[in-house]
Amino acid sequence: MSFFNSISRSMTRAQRGSKRATTPTSATFSPAEMLPPSPVVSSPKTPPIPKPLYLSSPFVEAALVKGNFKTIVMLPKYVDIMEWVAMNIFDFYTNLNEFYGVITECCTQQACPMMSAGPTLSYTWINHDRKNVHLPAPTYIDYVMTWIQNLLNDEATFPTKSGHDFPQSFPSTVKHVYRQLLRVFAHIYHAHFHQILHLRSEPHFNSLFAHFLSFGREYELLEIKDVKGTSSSPVGVGQLWEAWRDMGILEG
Ligand SMILES: [Zn+2]
Prior knowledge:
Elements: E1 39-41, H1 70-73, H2 81-103, E2 115-118, E3 121-123, E4 125-126, E5 132-133, H3 137-153, H4 170-198, H5 202-218, H6 224-228, H7 236-246
Antiparallel strand pairs: 1-3, 2-3, 4-5
Helix pairs in contact: 2-4, 2-5, 3-4, 4-5
């Protein structure tokens, strides 16, 4: 089923939980800063890179959910598709925020001066002057998570009250949200997977990410090019996506 082709929604919607995570502390920023940054190549000359741990056995197979994720992303009967997407985005955001909260003391301006997501890839942010700038990963992630939290709290964007409709712009908004959440996952895998391992949280984190990927593909929220990157600046998790697809965890 195509999310964007589906405009029908039931008249009555179940209420999502009104209790939401507290807003991360951060300076506010204007909508001009919200435009998704584009990846840049930092250096083409890199020595052969050892295989990241997240691609290595047994960590690549570690998961709480066994088998294919297709069944858990399917739209339940009688549930409105917009509501289903909104609810899942709220859950992905909340869970990812909690994981990031645990590793946040390792993700510092010194340790992560850029929003890296692969050996030759770091994402840039578009600033007030519409210039691509590198931000330290903790700053970038704080901007992203604050922006999403504010959207989730905005009744006009993510309506929770019965009788309030989702706006026309909802599909495009959630695609932007999804793209930025993917970048946060990509940074954690690339720069902080050893900390996830140290906490023995890799089955949880892998399951969350596989669920996120599967849901994003099912409802056309996720572009494959964003998952894989380019040949000169691949996203580290692009290989993870391929590995899971080959293992039958994800669909093609
Ligand atoms: Zn970091």
